[in-house]
Amino acid sequence: xxxDVSSPPANNRPRRVALFVTCLVDLFRxxxxxxAVKLLEDAGCxxxxxxxxxxxxxxxxxxxxxxxxxxxxxxxxxxFEGYEAVVVPSGSCGGMLSRHYPGLFDxxxxxxxxxxxxxxxxxxxxxxxxxxxxxxxxAAHYEDVVTYHDxxxxxxxxxxxxxxxxxxxxxxxLTMREMSTPEVCCGFGGTFCVxxxxxSNAMVGEKSADVAAxxxxxxxxxxxxxxxxxxxxxxxxxNPVRVRHVAEVLADMGxxxxxxxxxxxx
Amino acid sequence: xxxxxxxxxxxxxxGIRRSLRRGELAGPARExxxxxxxxxxxxxxxxxxxxxxxxxxxxxxxxAEINNATVARVAAGEVAxxxxxxxxxxxxxxxxxxxxxxxxxxxxxxxQKLLTLRRGRGEGRDQVSIxxxxxxxxxxxxxxxxxxxxxPVSLNLLPDTHIVVLREEDVVAxxxxxxxxxxxxxxxxxxxxxxxxxxxxxxxxxxxxxxxLGAHGPRRMHIVVVPx
Amino acid sequence: MxxxxxxxxxxxxxxxxxxxxxxxxxxxxxxxxxxxxxxxxRLPEFEALRDAARDIKNHTLANLDFYLExxxxxxxxxxxxxxxxxxxxxxxxxxxxxxxxxxxxxxAKSKSMIxxxxxxxxxxxxxxxxxxxxxxxxxxxxxxxxxxxxIIAPAVHLTKDQVADTFLEHHRAxxxxxxxxxxxxxxxxxxxxxxxxxxxxxxxxxxxxxLVAETGSSMLVTNEGNADLSNTLPRMHxxxxxxxxxxxxxxxxxxxxxxxxxxxxxxxxxxxxTLNTGPKRSGDLDGPSxxxxxxxxxxxSSVLGTDMQEMLRxxxxxxxxxxxxxxxxxxxxxxxxxxxxxxxxxxxxxxIGVEEASNLPNASTFCGRCESVxxxxxxxxxxxRHWREREFERHLTPKAVRQGLALWxxxxxxxxxxxxxxxxxxRTLALFGRGEGRFRALPxxxxxTRFRDFPAPESGGTFHAQWAxxxxxxxxx
Lengths: 266, 228, 477
Prior knowledge:
The complex is a heterotrimer of chains A (266), B (228) and C (477).
Chain A lengths: L15 E4 L3 H6 L1 H13 L3 E3 L9 H5 L3 H14 L5 E4 L2 H14 L4 H13 E3 H8 L8 E8 L3 H7 L3 H7 L3 E5 L15 H4 L1 H18 L3 E4 L2 H13 L5 E4 H5 L16
Parallel strand pairs in A: 1-2, 1-3, 3-4, 5-6, 5-7, 7-8
Chain B lengths: L2 H17 L7 H12 L14 H14 L3 E4 L5 H11 L5 E4 L3 H4 L10 E4 L8 E5 L2 E3 L4 E5 L7 H4 L3 E7 L3 E2 L2 H12 L7 E5 L4 E2 L7 E2 L6 E7 L2
Parallel strand pairs in B: 1-12, 2-3, 2-4, 4-7, 5-8, 7-12
Antiparallel strand pairs in B: 5-6, 6-9, 10-11
Chain C lengths: L7 H9 L2 H24 L3 H17 L1 H14 L3 E5 L2 H14 L4 E4 L3 H5 L2 H7 L3 E4 L2 H9 L15 H12 L11 H18 L2 E4 L3 E3 L4 E6 L3 H7 L3 E7 L3 E2 L2 H15 L7 E5 L13 E7 L22 H4 L2 H6 L10 H12 L16 H5 L6 H14 L5 H14 L2 H19 L4 E2 L6 H4 L4 E2 L7 H7 L8
Parallel strand pairs in C: 1-10, 2-3, 2-4, 4-7, 5-8, 7-10
Antiparallel strand pairs in C: 5-6, 6-9, 11-12
Helix pairs in contact in C: 3-12, 9-10, 15-17
């Protein structure tokens, strides 16, 4: 398997890695988690999945419930201690761990220090592969024209922009075609999409029009929340674009049924 | 100030201090803040205008034109002729309100027999004004106008067409050089009533976000750049 | 101004159903952001300037009392007057008294968001004084008796045709009886009408982009030149500015000006940037004989020293709303008060109360685009989240949201129970969704399924169930 990776990890690179699956992947799209495991194993890592992990706490955090957020964050900090790296197949959950956890414990120095240690070791999956492990190509095949949506937290909190494009560039058969505004929010926003459904709909409507105008046959992104939102809109509109998490394509799992088309008789 | 206003003043200032959890600034803390007023901190240098003088003038002209002004570079002896020719080129009347500035008087206006000049402030019906400029900012093609007996502000604003005579030596890199010149000329504590910095003709984008020139101020700005 | 922020959901529906507004917004979303992007690209020092701008504002806020006193000292020394207004009512009273003191009948008013905040126009009108808005956009909406929908482009929600109708209705009495069709003609007609207003005005009332403590100057930035006519032609100039507008020196102004125009309109520089310092001097041929500055607090000082202080760095460029996908969908009026967009979602709860404006900080996906373009690096999502925390603490969060959240957090802290439940949910949804692969309607998820299909989960159990089933490894084909 290591032969698939053009630059195998050096000795100082993290080898024992914990996967933070995220609640959406756990429930809706386990394949994304398995794709993440495969990509990490191919890059020479040993992957462990701490069994009692649940959610990173964003629903509480973004609803203003700081007490619950802290309790959940403390759970996660505890559970993921001792790993060389914690990898998350989501920019927004990854950003939660690496950008927001320490600030939750400003009045609790010991806990803050632990949260900071976790933050420093937490990475979104694709940026971990490219920036930390030095992966430059993957052994995957996907025959389609693809457009990529930059999910907001990954892009603006974690600086993820070129990394997925660089790896997608190495996928055989794949042609990249950018939409006109890949950096504009899709309107998911966690609970936002059900609290303000009309605004969310206007945003995702514009996004799906942009996806359609790109002429791509497949839409990829790095966050399952955004993908469920965009897939749901495209399908409601009768648009045949296939929607997948970028990890699935990179892990050569592009033959799985796309999001919203599982179990369909095709 | 009335007594109530004194109370309001105290109320606001004390409110600020209460929020900042301190009393009135005093001692070294106060001195260090006050020092900034006497020795202003310069922000990051804008590289594009750090040029030798001739290139600086060229950069000024370039940006002025990008910002919809027109520029003519002529010798001092040709200023009056250029102004008269500009008015003819643009089908404008050969009449202008001119700033009563000794610096402008040097340009030999009497040679233009057909040009009628009125020296004074701008009036509502003026079509053309002619003024000098305190400085030109190369970074953005911006003119700096300073009010005074020799330069009424209304001349910068009321006419449809504003013609400005700018000396090359008055072109500077950025705002900071203008501030230095102002302090040198007027003293640190006595700025003139108005310092206008003007970048091109008046405009608005308020109808459908499309730019239209000549909102309230001049529709046309013509800059005559002279070596001296 | 009466807030309609409580009716946010209703306002949103109106906005989304308004085709003229949607056309304008489509243009705004592309135009402003693209022009800003190009301007930033042309200036390699832009990011360093943003850092410097943030630092200047932070320094000033930490020493705000000192700089305000310095500013006052300089203004007074040059023959001007400073008036302190703790509340909106104080500011209204001071301005009215000043206008009455010169027997003012009309006022040339240059665009000022603070004047909207304190509702000065209605107040003056009630005293028999006519305030004339002179910024073209403000003039148009004043004729239509509408509030601004954007802080730098107040009439951005209107089309040319709507402006033409408005002008025909209001200018007919002045002899303009033809309905215009060209933008340039509309601008020319407004120029003509307003020119006379400027010449007739007794008082010029302007805002200020900055107050410079070093020199006692107010600084105004416009493209039209209306602020300059307002501060030059009438015999009294009144500047209305809030406490956080003060900055230390002219050098600091230079930094802020460089980020302001580029962030706002993508211009290298706005057309007119003017420093006004005191009244007309002896020898001056024009200018007002009285110069007054009204300094308004209106609750701002209480924000200092709190985790919300960063909102006071705002220089009102409008970049946050130009780049906000929520503003881009609903426009400014839906926010229901003076300040729309992300900065409005942060300022409004502070200024009119979080009960009244509770929707605004919630109506954001936290996409972070606003923060990424803010010239003074205000962490807008973080500040919106702070408001959500205040709302949660004060039990203002809607009951359904609270209950859902309570149930979810109960489960999220009991992983084993959570696993049981997600396992069941996964199996159930996968089972019922296996035909279509998605749901067109789903109990408890109508907010989603009204507009979108709901993708069914993959079958075979949750990730964790499968991982455990395979003995802590991924299933291999």
